[in-house]
Specification:
Strand content: over 45%
Largest sheet: 14 strands, antiparallel, barrel
Distance between the termini: 13 Å
Radius of gyration: 22 Å
Structural class: mainly beta
Order of helices and strands: EEEEEEEEEEEEEEEEEHEEEEEEEE
Shape: globular
Low-confidence stretches: none
Number of strands: 25
Mean pLDDT: 94
Length: about 350
Amino acid sequence: SGNSISISRFTTSPKVSGTHPEGYAIDNGYKAFSGTNISAKWDYNGTMIGISTGSPYLTDLTYSSGILTNAGAKVTSNETAIVASRGVGNGLKVFGGIRLNQYKGTINKPYLGGAGNPTFSVAGGYQFNLDTGTSTGFAIGAAYEVPQIMLRASVQYNSEIKHSSAKITENFGGLTTQSSPDDIIAPSSMIIKLRSALSPRLLAFANWRSSQYKKFKITGPAHTLAGQGDIYDPESGTDYALGVALKVNDQLNVLVGTTKGQSTDSGGLANALAPFKGSSSNFVGASLKISETVELNGSYSLVSFGDDNAGVPLSTGVGGAASFTDNKGSRISIGTKI
């Protein structure tokens, strides 16, 4: 409750390497990437209005090993939500609002240039660019609260968002192909959150999320014509987080927890542009109240990426399976709330 503005900045540093089936190492191609999340809320005659904006999906990958040299992907995104909530009595609140999101992506596959591109230059291979434009969906949910024991249980549904004005540009073999697919669907999700005090100073929390990524399939006409199949064909999956928070004193709170994200196992090879099977992390965080109106917060996560085999090209022109194991990453976040 109450009016506030929050700003946070995060940096994620994946380190993912593997072994090509022809025997050489595939060095880590991920660059560290950062994003900013901003949110604000205020009370308007008993109705809480909230606005948030951030980047839910980011990646920056360029390989530098063997036949994968200069192959990679860069994805940026933005999502803005405007949500209103209001109490309806007996600790129950309902909320709902609109969500606007956009994705931009670039994928390069120089190895598709074959013998005509011996240096694996980006321009000599296949290039893919996507801009979905901004489209709108909705969020709706309800929460039950018992302030005396800091209990809050909530359920939220985020609708899928259909991008009907997306633009795709492909460059391959000296030809440029432009297309406008009308069936790119950002995933829907269901989110359940629970928290409760275990003691006057100790709070436990659990979050669960199921996301329907299966519909978020990306194709390119030139890519398909070249016999390369889908650009991106993800599986749906679930994520959860568990943790506890401790009130050290009136100014300092600390927390510790664990997360796990797992997509549905299709039994096939992973995409070399995301060569792992789910991820898990352990995190610590803290918030420090430095005045009646200003709070600082930060967190650090150590991430483990699930072992998997990813489809990669061979020098013979066919495909093979590269092993990606024992890969880690980290994420750091700092922010303030006023």
